[in-house]
Amino acid sequence: MSRAYAFISMIAVLFAVWSSQTTAQIERTVGLLKADTSAQDGYVLFTPLYGTKTYLLDMCGRMVHEWQSDYPAGYTAWLLPDGRLVRMISVSTSPIGDSASGGVEVHTWEGERQWHFELYNDSMCMHHALDFLPNGNLLVVAYKRVSKEKAIAAGRDTTVLGSSLWSDVILEIQPTGPTSGQVVWEWDAMDHLIQDFDSTKAGFGVVSEHPEKIDFNYPVIRDPTRGTDKWHVNAVAYNAELDQIMICTPVNNEVWIVDHSTTPEEARSSKGGRYGKGGDLLYRFGNPLAYRRGDSTRKQLYFQHDAHWIAPGMPHAGKMMVFNNGTGRRGGSFSSVDIYTLPVDDSGAYAMEQDGVWGPDTATWSYSQRGKPPFFSPFISGAGMLPNGNVFICEGAKGRLFEVNPNGQIVWEYQSPIKVDSAFSQGASPKVTSVFRAYKYPASYPAFAGRDLGRGIPLEANPTPYDCVFDTTTSVQEVQSTAVIDVYPNPFTDQLTISTPRINARYQLFDVQGSVILNGECSTNSHYINTEHLPSGVYILAVDGAVRPIVKHGSVLR
Known about the structure:
The chain is mostly beta strands. The chain has a domain at 483-552: Immunoglobulin-like. It has five helices and 37 strands. Strands 1-26-25-24-23 form a five-stranded antiparallel sheet, with no helix packed on it. A five-stranded antiparallel sheet has the order 29-2-3-4-30, with no helix packed on it. A four-stranded antiparallel sheet has the order 5-6-7-8, with no helix packed on it. Strand 5 (73-79) and strand 6 form a beta hairpin. The protein is globular.
């Protein structure tokens, strides 16, 4: 072999090595990984687990706004239609492990803390999730300590009982001041038990004959320490039309629905309320073994999170969406995002199947990927429906946020580069970048009205260029500054009038959580909307981008 040939071969080898190293250096491992034009245009809100910051990203993965807190994240955080951030916070070391938060804050868009409320003591601790009611009150999930003596009196299996047990309660809290709130309604799982362990104790009966009750000794857990967290509720959702609450319990692999129209006294009983059953379960889904019916083949949920009704105005409105984590799933552990059509009639009653099991037996729509590696998050996570029919997914354990179209194709993808409050560099392998839940809001969401959401910056360190098909450089304020509307009366009762100079102007009515309640076009310059079916409360009306807070009679705008 000639020296010239050897030299050329050496140069070729060196070039190949250099090329591979250069390619490795620019390989995208964090930040924006994909942005297809068919993705829903909008902004993504997420809070890194244990971090003190909440970020708002544009479609190119650039941070356009952030909120700073004095407290680590307490799981759930979302953006209200008026631009305020609701953020659960961790105020202290949890009495039960990593599952508690203990508080909630509301920040203005500018970052000013408007409300700070803590619920954390030796007997009760807020955790995981909350939801807003139309009247401005909050529904929160909280642990409630149950003494060993009370648990035994309620028929708890003594062989799996530690020194105490933590039940789950749903509380309705009315804000009363900058740092205060009042509990005005409560639902406690301990009030709706059945057991067949001890005939001398309360609630003794045949479990299979009372699916409206909760088996106090299911599932059988032989670890008294883990058994102290009895139901581990991780999500709560409210349906204003039905006045019902959806509760997600991954320990039971079930979703429960209860009546919110009850008085506090009725909520503790089995009578009263709109549906006549007090606080007993109106419906349960996911695991009929929990009420001793069916068999393991009927089980559909596996340590699931984020069960909720799909909001009015969205595709599949009124159906249930759930992030089905898939831990222990038959056929292998993999996650799925499932939409179920609930067996509910116009009155809000749920029909059982002939064999005594609450259906449905199959999902209306489902997304999963069982390749290598599979789409799988063994804990946390969530998903939400988008206006264009796509589904936004938070694969929480990995901190991976992505959007799929109805055919299951990924059209947008982002890998969080944030560990607590520090950023990984582009090209690094991200670790411990978990996100409990994330939300995507369309660009027309009222919270963005009047906000400068120009070009932001990537969160990752040492970012590399990305040829993003979205160029969100125009502020929402510029787009919406020409809209002129009048809305009357305000407060309103059974009818609302929109006065606009442009016929066919688009309008959307949002509740305080950001769900679209009504949407359509103005047929005349003075367009009437029938609102008699809406509960009293605070709403946000957006017409051609112009935004107005409005109040239905009987509510106070705070």
